[in-house]
């Protein structure tokens, strides 16, 4: 069946530093991605900013605490709040991560890795379906950066991700930086990961900076997108065609123009790759 | 092989519950055994990446939410106290916005140990400012709307404060401590002083001001939904003879100018 959402172009994450630009109407970009939890509040400036952003451009909601892989029951209150946000802001789509982040009612506020087992697969598929039922729409699930893997995993991450998407009938948010970071940390082939991605389900791409810690790469969302990640993005566009792409920058958040320039670079890369594709097929 | 539930419980216990935040020996053996150890990092070092991030991320939020408490304690003492807090009260809400909800209460037990008995009240004040920052929106009552009310209706009028409004009471001058706390801590140790504050949001900005006992009882009457005549009576009990009506009107005017009464609230 695949996943049908509009193509939005090249956007940026909505961050506090840029709220004045959004309120002033000077934050011009194709689209914004808002972190769902930051707007599950009752009033004040953040909600006013999201209203203005939504009036200026399409918005998507990106969660970090749905905890899709957790063995705790789904958080009813969270889902109710998310549903209310969706109803109010009418995002182009809603996404969260293929991971877990809570257990026994405690939240780690991190994107913790799942073992890629049949047990975890069945569990996550059920949870994605339940969330989609509650929201009345398909969601997108994102691959996370990881720093460990488990000995009892029985399939690679890309196979697990694609199986979840197919069985739960959801979309995929492909974080190209995360693919690169995890490939480096675990020694798998990033191109092989991309090759497994179904074009009818990948509906968003994330690009971000990472930090080389010497022993591993850290998904820091700091600084410009690194060269090998741009190369991987080229490969992704070559394989998947145009996919709505978003720049994430959370540490040392730069001026809005720097962020917008990074989004424009993604647009240029996409145009170049699509031009090459057209030339080849002509 | 660990089942998914046991794996997650063991993972969380390893990164969040074990005492201390350095060294890797605290990680549960059941978890270490199932983690791959290829390349430059062994299993424990890989788990430690998550443990470091867990503490760093949440302590960052506490440091930001309680910026003045952090400034007074200094980075090392704040991290130690906030770490003890997090070990006792792990986050139970999907949003980091609420992770510090019990920090003032926790500090009440810690403040004496730190020799700073005012810290818990300062934390409570910082939390009140956060509560007001993202409280529900409401249109404030305007002065011209107030002027349109016929004099005969005044005794029965009731008002209600905007949702972004709180009263804070302390045995310490927390607003002065808040204003003077900087990177080097406090210029001098504060002296106890009974303090009443109202905290509110006007537009997107959070304000606070000290109030006296008369304004406090008047506000408490307003918050209880009592009519303006009762507010005047409360003021009368505290004010000099013959000045109650004038003082009540002056308070009302100040509240409207500050935008703390909600529009459409009179009836």
Task: Please describe what this structure looks like.
- The complex is a heterodimer of chains A (282) and B (267).
- By secondary structure, chain A is α/β, with parallel strands linked by helices.
- Chain A has a single domain, classed as Divalent-metal-dependent TIM barrel enzymes (TIM Barrel, Alpha-Beta Barrel).
- Helix content of chain A is 42%, strand content 18%.
- An 8-stranded parallel β-barrel of chain A has the order 1-2-3-4-7-8-9-12, surrounded by 5 helices. A two-stranded antiparallel ribbon of chain A has the order 5-6. Chain A has a two-stranded antiparallel ribbon with strand order 10-11.
- In chain A, strand 5 (100-103) and strand 6 form a beta hairpin.
- In chain A, 51% of the residues are buried.
- The model of chain A has no long low-confidence stretch (mean pLDDT 97).
- With 267 residues, chain B is mainly alpha-helical.
- Chain B has one domain.
- In chain B, 52% of the residues lie in helices and 7% in strands.
- Chain B has 12 helices and 3 strands.
- Chain B has helices spanning 4-17, 29-34, 43-65, 67-73, 75-88, 103-114, 119-133, 143-147, 174-180, 213-223, 228-238, 244-258; strands at 165-170, 195-202, 205-210.
- A 3-stranded antiparallel beta sheet of chain B has the order 1-2-3, covered by helices on one side.
- In chain B, a hairpin with a 2-residue loop joins strand 2 (195-202) and strand 3.
- In chain B, helix 4 crosses helix 5, helix 10 (213-223) packs antiparallel against helix 11 and helix 11 (228-238) crosses helix 12 (244-258).
- The N and C termini of chain B lie far apart (67 Å).
- The chains are: A alpha/beta (282), B mainly alpha (267).
- The interface between A and B is large, with 49 and 49 residues.
């Amino acid at each position: 069946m695949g996943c049908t959402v509009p193509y939005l172009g090249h956007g940026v994450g909505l961050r506090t530093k840029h709220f004045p630009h959004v309120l002033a109407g000077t934050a011009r970009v194709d689209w914004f991605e808002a972190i769902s939890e930051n707007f599950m509040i009752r009033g004040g400036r953040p909600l006013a900013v999201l209203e203005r952003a939504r009036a200026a451009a399409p918005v998507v909601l990106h969660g970090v605490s749905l905890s899709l892989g957790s063995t705790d029951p789904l958080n009813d209150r969270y889902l109710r709040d998310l549903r209310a946000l969706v109803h109010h802001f009418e995002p182009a789509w809603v996404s969260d991560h293929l991971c877990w982040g809570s257990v026994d009612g405690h939240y780690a506020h991190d994107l913790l890795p799942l073992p890629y087992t049949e047990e975890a697969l069945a569990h996550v598929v059920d949870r994605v379906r339940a969330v989609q039922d509650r929201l009345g729409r398909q969601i997108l699930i994102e691959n996370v950066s990881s720093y460990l893997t488990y000995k009892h995993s029985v399939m690679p991450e890309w196979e697990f991700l694609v199986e979840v998407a197919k069985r739960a009938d959801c979309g995929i948010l492909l974080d190209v930086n995360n693919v690169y970071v995890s490939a480096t940390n675990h020694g798998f082939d990033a191109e092989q990961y991309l090759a497994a991605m179904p074009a009818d389900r990948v509906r968003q791409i994330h690009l971000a900076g990472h930090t080389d810690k010497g022993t591993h790469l850290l998904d820091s969302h700091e600084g410009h997108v690194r060269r090998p990640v741009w190369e991987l993005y080229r490969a992704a566009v070559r394989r998947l065609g145009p996919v709505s792409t978003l720049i994430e920058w959370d540490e040392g958040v730069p001026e809005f123009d720097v962020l917008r320039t990074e989004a424009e670079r993604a647009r240029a890369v996409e145009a170049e790759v699509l031009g090459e594709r057209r030339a080849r097929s002509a | 092989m660990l089942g998914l539930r046991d794996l997650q419980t063991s993972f969380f216990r390893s990164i969040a519950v074990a005492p201390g935040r350095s060294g890797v020996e605290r990680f549960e053996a059941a978890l270490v055994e199932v983690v791959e150890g290829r390349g430059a990092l062994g299993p424990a070092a890989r788990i430690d990446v998550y443990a470091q991030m867990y503490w760093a991320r949440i302590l960052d939020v506490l440091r930001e939410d309680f910026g003045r408490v952090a400034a007074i304690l200094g980075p090392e003492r704040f991290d130690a106290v906030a770490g003890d807090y997090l070990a006792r009260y792990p986050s139970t809400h999907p949003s980091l916005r609420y992770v510090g909800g019990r920090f003032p209460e926790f500090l009440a037990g810690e403040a004496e140990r730190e020799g700073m008995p005012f810290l818990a009240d300062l934390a409570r004040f910082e939390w009140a400012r956060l509560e007001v920052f993202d409280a529900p929106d409401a249109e404030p009552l305007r002065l011209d709307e107030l002027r349109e009310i016929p004099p005969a209706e005044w005794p029965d009028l009731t008002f209600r404060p905007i949702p972004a409004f709180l009263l804070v009471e302390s045995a310490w001058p927390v607003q002065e401590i808040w204003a003077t706390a900087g990177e080097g801590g406090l210029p001098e140790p504060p002296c106890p002083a009974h303090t009443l504050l109202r905290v509110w949001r006007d537009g997107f900005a959070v304000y606070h001001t000290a109030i006296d006992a008369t304004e406090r009882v008047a506000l408490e009457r307003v918050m209880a939904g009592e009519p303006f005549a009762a507010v005047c009576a409360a003021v009368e009990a505290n004010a000099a003879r013959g000045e109650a009506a004038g003082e009540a009107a002056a308070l009302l005017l100040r509240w409207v100018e500050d935008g703390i009464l909600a529009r459409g609230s009179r009836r």
